[in-house]
């Protein structure tokens, strides 16, 4: 049983809906090694569950995550850090490996490792009072998992500014940079994230996963797209989708997720 992470799955053997991956380590949801490992294990579980069409990742109403557990990092030596770096880096990127569309519902603060985690989601919804940033430079460290993904998302210039200065950004700047996708009232963050995720229930799961794989392939996306596109011709959803499109136009297919 996980100590800090809970996973709410859609009910029923054939249900295809929204799963909620929630983590809570009061009072500030600081990410330590155990919590990040539990998040990665939950992400692996939801990725393999055919009932899940999309995933909402949520901290709590007050704070998504105030960042790294600096007290835990303070006691590490260089050999210990080197031994754990690969696993911690992989675990912080766990949301990107979920094949289903994934949205982070962000309240309060999303800093350091918390923002690195959220960068792996396909979408970020924040409250209009949220502060975001990567302040690791102020501790004499750097983000372990988020630099490359941040640069791809907002461009190398703005990414360098955020990483080198460690400064926080508010909702308006975050939206202008492309760091987040939607800004809502604080009380509406979870609802807005659920609304976005719910649109994928009953969708073409294999095609959505294929599209996500191409995005994640980065500079190798063209090669990956050829393989993913060709493989979709083996799926039931491709037959259903192309057939219904010819007969009734777009939006008429009833996909089965296979």
TrEMBL record:
<protein>
    <submittedName>
        <fullName>Enoyl-CoA hydratase-related protein</fullName>
    </submittedName>
</protein>
<dbReference type="InterPro" id="IPR001753">
    <property type="entry name" value="Enoyl-CoA_hydra/iso"/>
</dbReference>
<dbReference type="Pfam" id="PF00378">
    <property type="entry name" value="ECH_1"/>
</dbReference>
<keyword id="KW-0443">Lipid metabolism</keyword>
<dbReference type="InterPro" id="IPR029045">
    <property type="entry name" value="ClpP/crotonase-like_dom_sf"/>
</dbReference>
<keyword id="KW-0456">Lyase</keyword>
<comment type="similarity">
    <text>Belongs to the enoyl-CoA hydratase/isomerase family.</text>
</comment>
């Amino acid at each position: 049983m996980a100590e800090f992470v809970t996973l709410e799955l859609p009910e029923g053997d054939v249900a295809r809906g929204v799963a909620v991956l929630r983590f809570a380590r009061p009072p500030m949801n600081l990410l330590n090694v155990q919590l990040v490992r539990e998040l990665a294990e939950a992400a692996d579980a939801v990725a393999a569950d055919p009932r899940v069409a999309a995933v909402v990742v949520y901290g709590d109403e007050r704070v998504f995550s105030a960042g790294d557990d600096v007290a835990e990092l303070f006691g590490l030596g260089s050999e210990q850090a080197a031994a754990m770096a690969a696993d911690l880096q992989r675990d912080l990127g766990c949301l990107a490996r979920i094949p289903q569309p994934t949205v982070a519902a962000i309240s309060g603060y999303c800093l350091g490792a918390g923002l690195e985690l959220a960068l792996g989601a396909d979408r970020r919804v924040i409250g209009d009072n949220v502060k975001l940033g990567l302040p690791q430079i102020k501790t004499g460290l750097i983000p372990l998992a988020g630099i490359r993904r941040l640069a791809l998302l907002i461009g190398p210039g703005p990414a360098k500014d955020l990483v080198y200065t460690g400064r926080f950004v508010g909702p308006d700047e975050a939206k202008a940079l492309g760091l987040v996708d939607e800004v809502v009232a604080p009380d509406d963050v979870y609802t807005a994230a659920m609304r976005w995720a719910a649109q994928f229930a009953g969708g073409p799961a294999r095609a959505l996963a294929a599209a996500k794989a191409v995005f994640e392939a980065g500079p190798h996306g063209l090669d990956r797209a050829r393989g993913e596109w060709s493989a979709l011709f083996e799926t039931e959803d491709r037959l259903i989708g192309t057939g219904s499109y010819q007969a009734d136009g777009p939006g008429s297919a009833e996909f089965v997720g296979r």
